[in-house]
Amino acid sequence: MLIRHPLIYQAIQRLAPIPPEQWARLEGFLRPRSFAKGQNFIEPGQPSQEAAIVVSGLFRFYYTDAAGREATKAFRGPGELVAAYAELLDKRPSRTTISALEDSQVMVVLYERVTALYKSHACWQELGRVIAEDHYRQRERREQELLLNSATERYHAFLSEKAELAAKLPQKIIASYLGITPVALSRISSAGRRAKKRR
């Protein structure tokens, strides 16, 4: 059976085993979409109805408060899922902005198309369960980092775990992900460089 999007299929297979004939059903619903750098996949107030798989590029998830301050929630790259997930489940407008940090390509599907497949084969229920569990683990880990780790610890963990990402992101975005101001990030970064020189 011909699989039209093998890279996407492989990414989903890492989450849950989907038989080729079942994958063919979902492929019929996938639609390609391109996003230029700075273009939003979704923004606050818009209905949350779609999910996407990143083919290439990079997206940032963030919130903006009443004063215009941004808090970065997550980043998603190739093979990862993009959606305002909680709002999608609750069928309410998005409170999240999901923006392309570089020119990006995704395959988009209406979420109701995916949930309609749940009744057709157990593999889709398994995929839904794994995605929900993965979302929960990432959220729990993020909360633990923000609540238990110091800003310096969060910064060094970010550099260690997301080195390639850190090298190309503006300091303002890194600071908003770490939950600190750009000024505080500059002080932490400078202190780290001085410590390296003394070794």
Write the layout of secondary structure elements.
Layout: H1 6-13, H2 20-27, E1 31-35, E2 40-42, E3 50-56, E4 59-64, E5 70-76, E6 81-82, H3 85-90, E7 97-100, E8 104-110, H4 111-117, H5 122-148, H6 151-161, H7 163-168, H8 171-178, H9 182-198
Helix pairs in contact: 8-9
Question: Which features does this protein show?
Answer:
single chain; 199 residues; alpha+beta; four-stranded antiparallel β-sheet
Summarize the entry for a quick read.
By secondary structure, the chain is α+β, with helices and mostly antiparallel strands. The chain contains nine helices and eight strands.
Report what the structure shows.
By secondary structure, the protein is α+β, with helices and mostly antiparallel strands. It has nine helices and eight strands. It has helices at residues 6-13, 20-27, 85-90, 111-117, 122-148, 151-161, 163-168, 171-178, 182-198; strands at residues 31-35, 40-42, 50-56, 59-64, 70-76, 81-82, 97-100, 104-110. Strands 1-8-3-6 form a four-stranded antiparallel β-sheet. Strands 2-7-4-5 form a four-stranded antiparallel β-sheet. α8 (171-178) packs across α9. It is elongated, with a radius of gyration of 19 Å. The model has no long low-confidence stretch (mean pLDDT 91).
